[in-house]
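Suppose a colleague, Dr. K., hands you the sequence of a protein chain of 478 amino acids and asks what its three-dimensional shape might be. Before reaching for any lab equipment, you can write down a predicted structure in token form. Begin with the sequence itself:
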Amino acid sequence: MVFSSALFLFYFLPLFLLGYFLMPARARNLYAALASLAFYAWGAPNFLLIFLASCLCDYLIVKALARQQSHARRRAFLSLSTALNLGLLLYFKYSNFFVAQVSATAMLLGFSSLHWTAVALPIGISFFTFHKISYVVDVFRGKSLPTQSFAEYLLYISFFPQLIAGPIIRYHEIDSQIRSRRATFDGITEGVWRFVVGLAAKLLVADPLGAVADHIFRGDPWGMTTALTWLGTVAYTMQIYFDFAGYSSMAVGLALLVGFRFPENFNRPYVAASVTDFWRRWHMSLSRWMRDYLYIPLGGNRVSPVRQAANLWAVFLLSGLWHGANWTFIAWGAYHGAFLAFERTRLGARYLRLPITLRRAITILSVMFGWVLFRSESIHDAAARWARLLGLGPAMQPKHLLARASIISDAGITVLCCALAWCFVIEPLLDSREQRLALPQPLYARIPLLYPALAVLFALSVLALEAGQYSPFIYFQF
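The predicted structure, expressed as tokens, is then:
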């Protein structure tokens, strides 16, 4: 079940909210957890028992950890929980990839290929695995107390707004909200705004541009002109932003409806003036998780420059692997890690003193070339597309060029232009304005006339939903 579906919008969500507010306060955590399990089971019923069993094991392990006085015993329980969760992630997400690599190597050496039944990937396993690790580490460090009941723990792990595609919520960020929270009129109003804007970003911008990007990226790279390759790259750059940021906005909005306040996941990433700045703005919940649970334990900024660069590169290599079991994701992580390491060198420090407009242009081009790697089926495919972006490769026949002119419609061009204007004109202005001025109230609170615009956005989104095809969120596959 996805947020941008009639089933969720007109059945699941109204019934959930009705039941939630009719419930006594002491029963709401259990009700929300059970509703979230139903939400998950709708899309992945075969994994529900495995999910529940792993949650129960983690809950009991952490309860035992909290009772220990010995640091060695506490660390043993921490290691047990981490090994359990990473073991499940490795098996379900990476076993097919590892077996394929071993089989390919065996065939190169003259042996027969391995026989293997492919393992299905549980929806959202990367996200809820990180939530589980956050819980046990926060309790181990004394940053949070363990949950008072299994229902509370289950709510933290399975709460449906963030269950399948984030944002990644660290336990200490919402532990007090799990124990006590209150839905307010202002919070509900903000939640409705955030949800509708996110829904519109997904259905009115990301999906139309996704159709263009898919058409181009599924084709032969050498069968595309340089112009078409740039069109596909720009379309995908806009698609992944509006798709994932739209989902995150919907998740934040849904949480606000019942009194939870999730941390933000995006902060105008395409106005970034460096790749380091980009990762402070893009998928911020993942960046913070990697920083607190991986980068800092490796030494953070307290080590030598060489070791720091190696740590950054290793963290982003793992970040790429987290996104998917494919060499393209690993290479994408290494690509970004190399940029972050470079920006901490003396030459990188000089680069960061260049005019901000120039650095923004270099950053977005670097990010776009990275998205080509992220979206391509193989590294060979990505290399061919990079060559096309640079104008390299065989020439195209004029008739072939004309045959591809219908890939994007006039409406698609309008959507793309609006998306580009938002990212590269409006967002930089908003970013600059907010750095100069303190804005205590959100925009809709200061301009009531925007409420009709919200109704129009919702109506257009519903029309697009009814007219369009099923389009899952990009990050569901991770």
